[in-house]
């Protein structure tokens, strides 16, 4: 059951990228999705112990979700590059890695707020000139 919940969350994250791309300007769509991704990481922290107790571990489950996440951020970054909102040299997964990396610094109770601020820093640093 925990696997099904996790897969559903990943599918919602991927679907949100498509929805944001249809409803929001490119840079705003990317920002909204990245903020949602921070929430996804927070939820993953909560269920991680249960996921890690799955037979064979959670690595296969995580591998399967990677393509959904990669596809979502690729869509949004490419769209923002095409609109000239972002620099052409931005690697979509670098943005995801930065957010994932921030989740490993959870020593403080404010890691989530910090990660949300990081979204704005990443967006600002990725803008085209």
Short description, anyone?
The chain has one domain: Orthogonal Bundle (Tetracycline Repressor, domain 2).
CATH architecture group name: Orthogonal Bundle
In the CATH scheme, what's the topology name?
Answer: Tetracycline Repressor, domain 2
Shape: globular
Q: Give the CATH superfamily.
A: Tetracycline Repressor, domain 2
Write down the CATH class.
Mainly Alpha
Share in helix? over 70%
Q: Name the poorly predicted regions.
A: none
Q: Strand-residue fraction? A: under 5%
Structural class: mainly alpha
- Count of structural domains: 1
Q: What value does the Rg take, in angstroms?
A: 15 Å
Q: Which sheet architecture does the biggest sheet show?
A: none
Per DSSP E runs of 2 or more residues, the count of β-strands stands at 0
Number of helices: 5
The rounded distance between the terminal residues' Cα atoms is: 47 Å
Task: Explain the layout of strands and helices.
Blueprint: H1 2-23, H2 26-52, H3 59-82, H4 92-103, H5 111-126
Helix pairs in contact: 1-2, 1-3, 2-3, 2-4, 2-5, 3-4, 4-5
Based on the model shown, name its key terms.
single chain; 129 residues; mainly alpha; 0% strand; globular
Characterization of the model:
The chain is mainly α. The protein has one domain (2-126): Tetracycline Repressor, domain 2 (Orthogonal Bundle), CATH 1.10.357. Helix content is 78%, strand content 0%. It is built from 5 helices and no strands. The chain has helices at 2-23, 26-52, 59-82, 92-103, 111-126. The longest helix has 27 residues, at 26-52. The termini are far apart. The mean pLDDT is 83.
